[in-house]
Amino acid sequence: MSKKLFLFLSLMVVFATLLAACASPATPAGDSAQPQATTAGGEKPAQKVTLRVLVHQNPPMVAFMETFNKQFQDRHPNITVDMSIVNANDLSTVSQTRLSANDIDVLDIFGFANGAQPYMKMVDPPNWQQLIEAGLLMDLTGQDFLQNYDEPTIKDAGSYNGKVYAVNLGRVIYSGIFYNKKLFEQYNVSVPTTWPELVAACETFKAANIPCMTAGGKDGWPIFVGAYGLLGAMYPDQAALVEGLWTGTIKWNDAKSLEMWRKMQVYARDMMEEGASGIAGDAAPGRFASGAVAMFPGGSWYAPAIEAAQPDFDWGYIPFPGSDNPEDNKYWFGKYDQGWAIAANTPNKEAALLYLKEFSEPANYQAFVDAVGFIPTQPTAKLNTKIGAEIAPYLANFRVGYEQYWVAPKGAGQYANPWASYFKPFGTFDDPQQLADKVQADLQAGLDAVK
Amino acid sequence: MSYHFGRGWAKLIPYLLLLPGLFFYFLISFGPSMATAFYSFTDATGIRGAPVRWIGFDNYREFLFMGRASLDNLDALKRTLIFSFVVTTVQFTLGLIVALIVNQKLRFSNIFRTIYFMPVILGVVIQGLMWSLFLFPIGGPVAKLLALFGLRSEFLGGQPAEAFAWVIFIQIWANLGVTMMIFIAGLQTIPSELYEAARIDGANTWQVFTNVTWPLLTPSVNTNLLLNTIGSLQAWQLFLVLLGYRNGTQVLGYLIYATGFGQTSGSVTTSFRQGYAAAASIVLFLLVLVIGMTLQQYLQRREKRILG
Lengths: 451, 308
Known about the structure:
The complex is a heterodimer of chains A (451) and B (308).
Chain A: H1 3-22, E1 49-56, H2 59-75, E2 79-86, H3 91-100, E3 106-108, H4 127-133, H5 151-158, E4 159-160, E5 163-164, E6 167-168, E7 171-173, E8 176-180, H6 181-186, H7 195-207, H8 221-226, H9 228-234, H10 238-247, H11 255-271, H12 284-289, E9 295-298, H13 303-309, E10 315-319, E11 332-336, E12 339-342, H14 349-359, H15 362-372, H16 386-391, E13 398-400, H17 432-449
Parallel strand pairs in A: 1-2, 1-3, 11-13
Antiparallel strand pairs in A: 3-12, 4-5, 6-12, 7-11, 8-9, 8-10
Helix pairs in contact in A: 2-15, 7-11, 11-17
Chain B: H1 13-39, H2 58-65, H3 67-102, H4 109-122, H5 124-134, H6 141-148, H7 160-187, H8 192-200, H9 205-216, H10 218-233, H11 237-242, H12 252-260, H13 274-307
Helix pairs in contact in B: 1-13, 2-3, 2-13, 3-7, 3-10, 4-7, 7-10, 10-13, 12-13
């Protein structure tokens, strides 16, 4: 090969590589970049559209969404739904990156929470607020389908500065305990309504070599979230608890809190089965449904997974009896779970709105809550599920829980939380007083830093 | 020495051929590094369209000096150094021993090389999931093995020190193959005549190793030490897959990931704080730079002293 030819070919390779690197990326959603015919009133768009939908991993919800998407596509043959599923812990990250890259049309977003309160200092806005302020979420105010949902839901879980940016699809409870009815009957244990009764029930089961409780300790949070009922029983007004902690009127090492820590130690050390720290969060319902364990403190969202693992397994769901007074143990604490939002810059606005409109139709919504076991946010929907029947007796006592109010001050240490998982065997502490002092010191360090 | 690319403007060809590589280096590595340094002085959230304000050294002040959180960050820094030291030392030593063994002309040595190298190609997620199953405390294979001796362990869910030790073990298992291969490549460059001469002079196995193998392995030793040290200082993926966000186990790399991308515990909604995470990244970068440069200086002097 002559030197000139070699030189020419070399230059071609260099420039081809540079040009390839500088080229525009392929359109991620296929046909989505095509212009759409403008339609009024949410009628089906005329052009071919690929609607990009993002949801978090929740097996019954994903199964329902696959069915719904198929039905939606059948009704609108010009729309293809491209649904992505991510782990719940990664949802905010993926939402942020895909919204920033204009690579998503409809996204799953948890109920708005953890907003800065007037008594808080130097706190950053929560991620949903950051997304709204950056202009990445579409203003849904005035959309007809919003009228299908109850007003508090729209106001509390999806609005900011008087505008609606998300429609929330259901509340969940995280302060309850699933119990194995067969084992309770077999060992003649009555359903506990107070803390002493819960302790006695566990002692009975342990004496019979039956683990009292299980939870997905490997993921960490199921252990402390499982004990939020105990926190709720001690501090029923959780918004006031957060304000008290920030303003110093409540301390994690005062007498009342110390009682909570003592109970949490019993919960972590004596009630949880050996090896719970190795069970993943999504494996715990299966472990409970196997019938080997008497109780499973966990969120109401686990109910479909328990039913799927063992359809014939007989279980009940009760508020965590954290107080010695049964009247204190009649509350549910929880949060607004999954919701829908639309990317402000979506090129598929009509299709996205149509998707939410059809999802919000009462029949579809009812099928959704039946599948996932959420407490409905549409007033016409019914609690048809088994978990719904278990929740119903105390539903009037539903309260948004501590985690949805709490914002840690900058500079607070990593122990500044009311978490039962700090105790052995999940953590390193085995003295409630020592832990209470450590938690308060870590919180105080943050409060002092932002003074 | 003749110049392959000829004369005149043809001499530019090698430089032109470097351009694509340089372009990608600037695009993928240098550019983002500079951007990270810039963002570390801002309140950037990483959200497109969100305002980015210059806040000077506030992120560094918060990371290094603000409240108890800064002490937790320093604990993570300390843990990172411990992790790096143990991983480097053990992986280096084991890698050398394994390389010496499988470099022998033994039957099945190629099969053993493949087995030792196999974890490298699995990828972090597969490695993590595999060990999570192995170390499942209720009826998992290792738990059953321990039970035969009347022992039990919580493994990855146990006390932070125990969980941390398991991550060190898995990190070494996962990367031993690379260290071994680099040593094998080095061992195969040592002329067999030198071994024969040493044997004729009456050297025993240990003397052959210390006077022939070890000095001539110097380039491989340097490469492995640098790669192991820098790699382990930056490690974070296994912590994410095996442990998640757990007090007492985080290393700096994981802390950066968790902060920058709003990793949550429970259902708390956090903020996107990429400016703050960028500052933490720069701290980690400086740590790697200081340790890496010092180590490299030492290793270069050592190489010069031994090989001339």
